[in-house]
Amino acid sequence: MPERSGPGFRRRVGPPSRRARVLLLTLGVLAVLFLLFVMFAGFWTDWLWFKSVHYSSVFTTQLWTKIGLFAVFGLLMAVIVGFNVWLAHRLRPPLSAMSVEQQSLDRYRSGLAPFKRWALTGIALVIGLVAGAAASGQWRTWLLWTNGTSFGVKDPQFGMDVSFYAFELPFYEFLLGFAFSAVIVSLLTSVLVHYLYGGLRLQGPGRRASVGAQGHLAVLLGVFVLLKAVAYWLDRYALAVKTGAYKGVSGWTGLRYVDANAFLPAKTILFFVAIICAVLFFLTPIRRTWAPALIGLGLMVLSAVLIGGVYPAIVQQFQVKPNEQAKETPYIQKNIDATRQAYGIADSEVSTYDPADSTNADALKPDAQTIADIRLLDPNVVGPTFQQNQALRKYYAFPKSLDVDRYGDQDSVLGVRELDLNGIQRNWINDHFNYTHGYGVIAAKGNQVDANGNPVYTESALPTKGSFGDYQQRIYYGEKTTTYSIVGGGYQDIDYTAEDGTPVHFSYDGEGGVGLGNPLTRAAYAVKFAEPQILYSSAIRDGAKVIYDRTPKERVEKVAPWLSIDADPYPVVEDGRVVWVLDGYTTSDGYPFSSKTTLGDVTKDSLTNQRGELLTAANQVNYIRNSVKATVDAYTGEVTLYQWDENDPVLKTWMKAFPDTVKAKAEIPGSLMPHLRYPQDMFKVQRDLLAEYHMTDAGGFFNGTDIWQVPTDPTTNSNEVQPPYYLTVRMPDAKAATFSLTTSFAPNGRDNLAAFMSVSADPGPDYGKIRIAKMPTDSGALGPKQVQAKFNSDPLVANQLTLLKTGTDSDIEYGNLLTLPVGGGLLNVEPVYLIGRSAKVPVLKKVLATYGNENAVVAVEDNLEKALAKVLGGAAGGAAVTPTAPGTTPTNPTTPTSPTTPGTTVSPELQKAIGDAVKANNDSQTAFKNGDWAAYGQAQKALSDALKAIEAAQQKPAGTPAPAPTPGAGAAPTPGAAPGTTPAAAPTGTPTPGS
Predict the structure, then answer these.
(1) How far apart are CA 337 and CA 699, in angstroms?
(2) Are 786 and 751 in contact (CB under 8 A)?
(3) Which three-class secondary structure state does DSSP give residue 514?
(4) Contact 352/774 with Cβ under 8 angstroms?
(5) Distance CA 50, CA 56 (A)
(6) What secondary structure does DSSP assign to 573-598, as a single string?
């Protein structure tokens, strides 16, 4: 029969053919398999990565903890909700004489009837999945609770160990929140089912709720109120970690007078009221009336308003405000003590330092090392100079901010020559096979520049040569290395390009990386990196490995997800290798009475954009310890964690949760130990707290008359605070100079100097010792902003800097403004760099300096020696000054002179002291000419000791005649000589003032 067509007919479309159905089914199965493989690839590659760095236990511990929490709490939620839905359905009333309302609902009941079991299962499953996913995110809370370690410190209000607040209370609050969620969801779903099946009615005559619905809902409400009673009880303890703003502290934590005397008793009363109310709800199914329960609920709400709200307001208004200081002082003191303990600042020492306007040679002698090590190279400015002078190949680069470390007695500025793929022709083979690593560490003396204003390198060239000796220079893991590479298997990547342009090849033989011998593994990484060539590329040979997650920070964060990592890793050359050193912090937000601080905010300064920001899972904390020192091998990527703070209970807890992942402090290599230092982010947190918490008296804290602030950085155009600086400095109350981390404070709202703070950064007995030199309020000491203004307003400085820029097409950039307490006063030094507008390479051209207070003289000179000679005057001879350029002589170092005229009788002790002084002076000159700065520092110390011996010997009766000094053998000390002695002429070759 012919097919009919036309406007009145519609073409009949039959079902799809069998072939089409098979094709669609096949495509669907393939799509599902692909999605499953993508999920598997993420899991599999993570497992392989953790296994390659030998931290597979971290991966499995996290995985099983998350799975366990997901399963237990997901199943528990599903069972609770499912049971209540089933119970509501079972308690449904028989349907009869249906109202209009019930008739309209009948359609839904009829439609749902065939799928009731599936609907119940589906609802319970979905709710369980959501609850399980939320619970799995609490794996840290679970591990802390199950492995908690005692702090050995009790809170001053309840007498509970701090571990209760840090480890236990958060888990109890999580359980309480889960229980509330289960009851609320059960209540909502039960109400819905009761309404759908007639147990609850909004219309019609008679009871609005059936007996079954009433009893069921009353019990759920009773459980809810009972949980509220538990919440009231826990809230009592939560008052010790309650946060609010008070006395200018935004994160003020702990009880105050109104909390202890109004809120605390109110919470206790409400606890008992809630229990009584819950009992009334539980009796509702028996009494079959809502009245008592609703009255009890109303009384509980009224009590919460009156006892928990109105009464505390009355106490605050009529008891606290009229005599606030007396009422709040005990609680302020608790906050002060707890905060100082929690942030490790309880042992900080504050001493008064009244800076003088002038100094003399004797006063400067103890600060000779400080002055000798004044850093002229600003590591945050000279990065482009390292790039220009030492990158040497266009595919190498240095970071914007370099690092400072100690090698021997020399402060050094270091930069790692890392790979920069922007300097090559980009393609897949070049990016991931040919160019895979950087090469070498470049170092320069921090306190010197050459005659052209460039760094004096102690490690340079390609391959690098210098003071570090032989070491593995290849940098496969670094701060700028963010892409994956495929190495090894005999593939010859480009090591570096020789001077004649010939590439030198190298095949990676390190232990780092994940092997790609398994086809399944190659497929997983092809998915992970969205690069199908990994599956079939012939460049991947037997034994090839893929290395990724190559920045030191992300490697440590992955193997220790419970740590917060300092934003500034730094390189160390030790034991024939380059390792990145990172500082890890354990934190908590549960230390009672300790004020909270936001790490991301307080660690920001004018260099944050260059160095990075400290981030942590618990960004607002009130306890922090630098508990771990971590290293990442720049060649193999090996991650090692060392226990640094052996008393930190938070670290001990995590070590129990992740056993065998952190090595003991005693296992830190001896060659690495001298390079460990106090971390910057920890110091920033502590200085932010000490701006106010240096006040240990509650009365002074209440009045807030001595609040400090970290000054803004006057050398930049930003409004960010001045960063701390690593310097070798002697604090006024210390015996000797040490490698330290330093900062300054200004009074709140003013620009003068309030205090100078340092912490010993060397890993010796004084490591972490915080010293604060506090200025008297009328000292007139200049703060950084005032010093910079003094420099900028000086006519000579303006003229000299203008002359520098004239005709050079260059700009001026100020280096770090260093404030140093030396000679009984304050010395401020600032290098000035000339930067070409096209090349953008900083070159040190001038040094600004000033000594003293408001009337201090300003110097702008070509080098530090001349600047110090001007601002210190004749006193400059009291301290050795490191030269500006190799081959020049130091300006007026302390040199020995004969304390007597020829023929005068002297004692044997005096003769010996003179001989020691002459020998030390000669040793100083020899070390200086050889550039041996460690020997130079030792000789200068020996010279200082000899001068003291001369002065002591002169107090004894004279003995034998003193020999006349032999020309060239030594000279008589001008500075440090005894009063009334006659200095001999300086011998040939001895540095003199102005040389």
Answers:
(1) 14
(2) yes
(3) strand
(4) yes
(5) 5
(6) EETTEEEEEEEEEEEES--TTPPPEE
* β-bridge mates for residue 488, sequence order: 544
With contact defined as beta carbons under 8 Å apart, do 320 and 327 qualify?
Answer: yes
Task: Report the C-alpha gap between 838 and 299 in whole angstroms.
Answer: 77
Separation between Cα atoms, residue 823 and residue 359, nearest integer Å: 6
Structure tokens at 508: 């990676």
| 971: nearest Cα among 961, 959, 982, 960 | 982
The residue among 569, 590, 587 whose CA lies nearest residue 578 is 569
Tell me what pLDDT residue 344 has.
Answer: 96
Instruction: Compute the distance between CA of residue 79 and CA of residue 762 in angstroms, rounded to an integer.
Output: 58
| Residue 355 identity | P
Look up the pTM and report it.
0.83
Contacts of 227 (CB under 8 A, 6+ apart): 176, 179, 180, 183
Place of tokens 């991966």: 59
Cα gap 607→172, rounded to integer Å = 41
How many CB atoms neighbour CB 31 within 10 A? Answer: 10
Residue pair 661/641 in contact (Cβ under 8 Å)? The answer is yes
CA distances to 386, 461, 483 from 391, in Å: 7, 9, 20
* DSSP H/E element including 701: helix 698-703
The SS3 assignment for 985 reads: coil
What DSSP assignment string belongs to 733-777? T-SS-EEEEEEEEEETT--S--EEEEEE-SSSTTTT-EEEEEPPT
DSSP 8-state assignment for residue 468: T
- Reading the block at residue 469, the tokens are 């000796």
Between the alpha carbon of residue 155 and those of residues 141, 163, 234, 241, 338, the distances in Å are 21, 10, 15, 10, 9
Quick one: which of 861, 801, 866, 844 has its CA closest to 453?
A: 844
Find residue 252's DSSP bridge partners: 244
Find, among 177, 196, 229, the residue nearest to 88 by Cα: 196
DSSP type of residue 931: T
Report residue 312 as tokens. Answer: 């505390």
Distance CA 841, CA 457 (A): 16
Distance CA 819, CA 784 (A): 8
Q: Which two tokens stand for residue 940?
A: 């200068």
pLDDT along the chain (995 residues), means of 10: 50 68 83 86 94 96 97 96 92 67 65 76 92 96 97 96 97 97 95 84 70 92 96 96 91 95 95 95 88 91 92 94 94 97 96 92 89 91 93 93 87 94 93 95 93 92 92 95 93 90 91 93 94 92 94 96 93 95 96 94 80 61 96 97 97 97 96 94 95 94 92 87 92 91 94 95 92 92 93 90 80 92 94 87 93 89 91 66 42 37 51 73 64 64 74 56 37 34 34 31
| Cβ neighbours for 276, distance < 8 A, ≥ 6 positions apart | 296
- Number of Cβ within a 10 Å radius of residue 991: 22
Range 900-915 burial, b when 16+ CB lie within 10 A, else e: beeeeebbeebbebbe
CA atoms within 13 Å, Cβ hemisphere of 628? 30
Q: Can you tell me the distance from the alpha carbon of 137 to that of 69, in angstroms, rounded to the nearest whole number?
A: 9
Using an 8 Å Cβ cutoff, are 966 and 898 in contact? Answer: no
- The CA distance from 434 to 426, in Å, is 11
Q: What is the dihedral of CA 70, 73, 76, 82, to 10 degrees?
A: -70
Virtual torsion, Cα 167, 173, 177, 178, nearest 10 deg: 40
Q: Among the residues of 137-254, which ranges form H helices?
A: 139-147, 162-163, 169-196, 211-238
Cα–Cα distance, 938 to 952 (Å, whole number) = 21
